Amino acid sequence: MPCSDCSIEASDAVQASTLRLLLIINATMFACELAVGILADSTGVLADSLDMLADALVYGVSLYAVGKAVAAKVTAARLSGFLQIVIALAMMADILRRVFTDSEPVSWLMIAVSVAALAANVICLRLITKHRDEGVHMRASWLFSRNDVLANLGVISAAFLVALTGSRWPDLAIGLLITVIVLRGGFSILKDARAESAKTSH
Fold first, then answer.
1. What is the mean pLDDT of residues 121-128?
2. Structural domains in the chain?
């Protein structure tokens, strides 16, 4: 007879391995985008770097939840949602500051780092898509990876607009859009965690 416990342990091991790799990729890209965002004076790249940080924290929390009871996974998803919201609010504060101060985003630096980030996030999305139905904590991880791909495409588009127009406003606009995506993602995960908690309590 097949060993169900062995199957569960194997699935948990694959989840943990995937999340560990996602954590490393996102932490590395956070550091790269933070440095380039400061050099490029780009709101969009800095917002995306903080999004990477949020995702790295989410993957770390999800990694903790692997192999644990459903209640622990719900708690992990809930914490992930709150982390996203807190980071989105910090991003919003920085955008408001930049609206009232001068900034001169460097478009070619924006494009270079965003293409690298896009490649990293496409890899992350492909990895996590296989596991998105394996618990609320994994759905949270998948949602954030999907949002990252959209954010990277937005920063690349904004960089081309900055180059074409010479204006900083496309950069500020994409920074705000990424912030809204992160904020909505956080609330979406909280809603999902609430639904999962209600389902398991009956």
1. 88
2. 4-201 (1.20.1510.10)
